[in-house]
Amino acid sequence: MVPTANPSSSSMVTGKDASLRPPQVGGEGGQSLGPIVEWLADLGVTEHWVVSCYLKLEPRDRSRGKYLIKLKNRIRDEVAGFELRGASRQERDTVGRDLNRVREYLENPGSLGPGQGIAIFACEPLNLFEVISLPRVFRSRLQIDRSPLVRELAAVDDEFGRVLCVAYDRTSARFFEVTAFRIEELAGLAPSDTTRPGRFRGPRAATGTGAGAGSAGEHNFHQRIREEKHRHYASIAQRLFDITRDRAIRGVILAGVGADSDAVQPHLHPYLATKVLGTARLNPKSATATDVMQAVLDVRFHSERAVETRSVEALREGLGTGWAVNGIGDVLTALQHGQVRTLLVEPSAEAPGYRCSQSGRLSLAEEGCEGHGAAVPVPDVIDEAIEEALRQGSNVELVEDGDARAEVAGLAALLRFKR
Questions:
Q1: Homologous superfamily in CATH for domain 1-160
Q2: For residue 61, is it left (φ>0), alpha (ψ between -120 and 50) or beta?
Q3: pLDDT tens for each residue of 345-372
């Protein structure tokens, strides 16, 4: 199985016909996430409170149920903040039941799916309980609001884009088109007739025949194998190029056997050569859709670390030229002015803060809302900043590399225009 959405069988919204629900997402040849994002966004601002939960489920998070500890801590903090917002006893009880449903669902490891993240939206009065397995999430967060927080879903879909993965050996090749929520196997190359590899054993030389005849035969044997391999790799490169003529791609991943994982790269068209995200090891004869998806996620993980390094270098340069800011307070000010092009987030950062009731401005201190309405407490202003950046169409990057993240003071930003 590959990352899919797993809507509850009872998941429906009062006032919406069940036939209008979006198709299930994911699976081989499945639908994109677009319909379900639009469907959730169409709920708009409701009179009821909606629980939105994004949870990281990387291997280190699944180990010993660490993700559950994060979830329970965020539920505790969000409940405390919700009480300060003046919610009625009935509203608190309803939200409490929604939070219990989310927690109970996640306590069952079999419900988590194979992705490295999960999103859940729950609202009892709307009969809403929607579960979507994700290839990744920015960070674990939980919010209670009047509408579902769906911007991260759209951002993950857009950021992941369309990736081509080819799994090959010296005789065959399989091609896969991978998006954040779907994997589809494309037409491959038919197995070719090739010389059987192995140790050369030429015909026995007749008595008196020189040793040179056997040496020439062995040389031709191995030369023929090399030529067949190169023709095969050239055919793979041509097939990749033909696929990209019909559709735009975010990147290419080459997955071979053993040391030949990158054997196709020298044969690629220069345009495709710049699109290679990395290499992986897969056996094309036995690889499953899950194997391919895991290989793609692993390669993208390492590729993203390189992107983080470049972003932090740009931050370092931008701080001296006015094209970047570092620190939670400065970033919140930049968000208020719509300056943020790329938001850099240190994953472990947390900070309580306030949202101004009139302007929506975020602030670390209550005094920051003077002239902007009442200061409404929020449990974690970092989560609010991520949502605000997504609302403004900014790019969001979690800086997880150890050396790079030390340079981010909670939040940092590359700017669209100077301060």
A1: eRF1 domain 1 (3.30.960.10)
A2: alpha
A3: 998 888 888 889 888 899 999 888 988 8
Kindly report, residue by residue over 371-380, the tens digit of the pLDDT: 888 888 888 8
Residue 56 has pLDDT above 70, yes or no: yes
Are 95 and 50 spatial neighbours (Cβ–Cβ below 8 Å)? no
Pair of tokens at residue 58: 């990387």
Of residues 323, 332, 326, 330, the one with CA closest to residue 359: 332
* CATH, domain range 304-419: 3.30.1330.30
**Interval 382-408: pLDDT, tens:** 988 998 998 888 988 888 877 888 899
CA 394/CA 415 separation, integer angstroms: 10
Helix/strand/coil (H/E/C) assignment for every residue in the chain: CCCCECCCCCCCCCCCCHHHCCCCECCECCECCHHHHHHHHCCCCCCCCEEEEEEECCHHHHHHHHHHHHHHHHHHHHHHHHHHCCCCHHHHHHHHHHHHHHHHHHHCHHHCCCCCEEEEEEEHHHCEEEEEEECCCCCCEEEEECCCCCHHHHHHHHHHCCEEEEEECCCCEEEEEEECCEEEEEEEECCCCCCCCCCCCCCCCCCCCCCHHHHHHHHHHHHHHHHHHHHHHHHHHHHHHHHHHHCCCCEEEEEECHHHCCCCHHHCCHHHHCCEEEEEECCCCCCCHHHHHHHHHHHHHHHHHHHHHHHHHHHHHHHHHCCEEECHHHHHHHHHCCCEEEEEECCCCCCCEEEECCCCCEECCHHHHCCCCCEEEECCHHHHHHHHHHHCCCEEEECCCHHHHCCCCCEEEEECCCC
Q: Is the pLDDT of residue 10 over 60?
A: no
Boundaries of CATH 3.30.1330.30 in the chain? 304-419
pLDDT tens digits, 204-236: 544 444 445 555 566 565 566 677 788 888 888
Structure pTM? 0.70
| Ranges in the chain annotated CATH 3.30.960.10 | 1-160
- The bridge status of strand 353-356 relative to strand 375-378 is antiparallel
pLDDT at 335 over 80: yes
The CATH number corresponding to 163-199+214-287 among 3.90.180.10, 3.30.360.10, 3.30.420.60, 3.30.450.20 equals 3.30.420.60
